[in-house]
Amino acid sequence: MKYVYAPGCALMSYKPQLSYKLEEFAFRHFGPIETVLTCCFDSPQLDEADCLLTPCETCAQTYQKRYPEKKIINLLQAIAESAVFVFPDYGGASMSIQDTCAARTNPEMLAAVRILLEKMNIRLVEPAHTGAKAKCCGQLLYGKTDIVKVENFMKKRADEMPCEDVVVYCASCIMSMTVGGKRPRYILDLLYGEETDMTGEGVCSWNEKLLQFRKAHK
Question: Is the whole model's pTM more than 0.85, yes or no?
Answer without folding.
Answer: yes
